[in-house]
Amino acid sequence: MNDIKEVNLDPNEQLVSLLLKYHKRIYGFILTLVPNLSDAEDILQESALVMCRRFREFQSGTSFLAWAITIARNQIYSYRKKHYGRAAVQFNEDVTSTLISYAIFCLKKKNKRIHALEECLQKLNHNDKKMIEHRYETGARIRDIARQSGRPEQGMYKSMARIHNLLRLCVERTLSSWETF
Q1: pLDDT value, residue 82
Q2: How far apart are CA 147 and CA 141, in angstroms?
Q3: Is 98 left (phi over 0), alpha (psi -120 to 50) or beta?
Q4: Rounded to 5 degrees, what are φ and ψ at 105?
Q5: What share of residues in the chain are helix, strand, coil (percent, to 5)?
Q6: How does pLDDT run across 109-129, given as a tens digit for each residue?
Q7: How far apart are CA 48 and CA 15, in angstroms?
Q8: Which residues contact 172 (CB under 8 A, 6 or more apart)?
Q9: How many Cα atoms sit within 13 Å of 83 on the Cβ side?
Q10: What is the distance, to the nearest Å, from the Cα of residue 109 to the centroid of all Cα atoms in its chain?
Q11: Rg of the chain over CA atoms, in angstroms?
């Protein structure tokens, strides 16, 4: 999967664009292995610095997220050795490796769901798509959307429930069709 769509961007702009796109997923991965928020933020910052220094090694056409997760994983190991050293409770390398493998598995599964949802959103009719965009891209409340559209609030809740159900069913169908290939 090619993550770099803006080929006219210089490498620094490409990196910033990709970091912004995947920031939450990288941070979520780190948080699965480092429950202390302050430590996780430090690791994310260190990971971003390493990505900046090594971005020329990133191969266009490959998954930036996988590359970034690999760097974050290495930063987690380094951070633990440096800051925790001989802490009273410390996982051995095998346990840590198992936890990292499981976190990567969960991340891949979540990414598949996100891609399926993106496909399903494209299949919605124009009005339903606009309603979903208004609700989730702008953060508007259902009450406000109903008021702006001149529809009853209760009717808007029913419409959103119907759209959510359509999306849920579509995502399930899409994921099961991908598994058959």
Answers
A1: 80
A2: 10
A3: alpha
A4: -60, -45
A5: 80, 0, 20
A6: 777 888 888 889 999 999 999
A7: 10
A8: none
A9: 13
A10: 11
A11: 20
Q: Locate tokens 């802490």: which residue? A: 87
Q: pLDDT (tens digit, 9 = 90+) per residue, 69-119?
A: 989 988 988 887 787 665 545 566 677 677 777 777 777 777 788 888 888
In the numeric block, the tokens 């001989």 are attached to 86
| Tokens coding 1 | 């999967």
Give the Cα separation of 180 and 145 in Å (integer): 39
Q: One-letter amino acid identity for 157?
A: Y
Residue from 25, 20, 19, 24 nearest 106 by CA:
25
Q: What would the two tokens of residue 165 be?
A: 């159900």
Alpha-helical (H) ranges within 34-92 are 37-54, 64-79
Question: Cα 108 to chain center, whole Å?
Answer: 10
> Tokens representing 115?
């891609």
DSSP state of 57: G
